[in-house]
Amino acid sequence: MTDHSEQASPSIAAATALPADIEALSYEEAREQLVGVVSKLEAGGTSLEDSLALWERGEALARRCEEWLEGARKRLAAARKDG
């Protein structure tokens, strides 16, 4: 597994730390779970409390996906610079 420690600054990371279960997900796993959350929210039928919990989880999953994508952008930029 690749080291992804080059993310947000420590003060920002501490303020916006992801739950450990989400932090451990690969991009594909986080994206798949995010799709599931969106489907549940779109289907409706959940209580306001459950909807808010789903929304918060979806936001965290989206942030995890963005972290992976940002890491990939940095690696591509470094590869172009070195190449």
Task: Summarize the structure in short.
This protein has 83 residues and is an all-alpha fold. It has helices spanning 10-15, 20-23, 27-43, 48-82.
Provide an overview of this structure.
With 83 residues, the chain is an all-alpha fold. The chain has a domain at 26-82. 75% of the residues lie in helices and 0% in strands. It contains four helices and no strands. The chain has helices at residues 10-15, 20-23, 27-43, 48-82. α3 runs antiparallel to α4 (48-82). The longest helix is centred in the C-terminal third of the chain and has 35 residues, at 48-82. It starts with 9 loop residues before the first helix and ends with a helix. 6% of the residues are buried. Residues 1-14 have low confidence and may be disordered.
Question: In terms of topology, how is this protein built?
Answer:
Layout lengths: L9 H6 L4 H4 L3 H17 L4 H35 L1
Helix pairs in contact: 3-4
Order of helices and strands: HHHH
Q: What separation lies between the terminal Cα atoms?
A: 23 Å
Percent of residues in β-strands: under 5%
On the 0 to 100 scale, the average pLDDT is: 86
- How many β-strand runs? 0
Helix content estimate? over 70%
Q: In this structure, how is the largest beta sheet organized?
A: none
Count of DSSP-assigned helices:
4
Q: Structural class of the helix and strand makeup?
A: mainly alpha
- Overall, the morphology is elongated
Low-pLDDT ranges: 1-14
Rg computed from alpha carbons, rounded to a whole number of angstroms: 15 Å
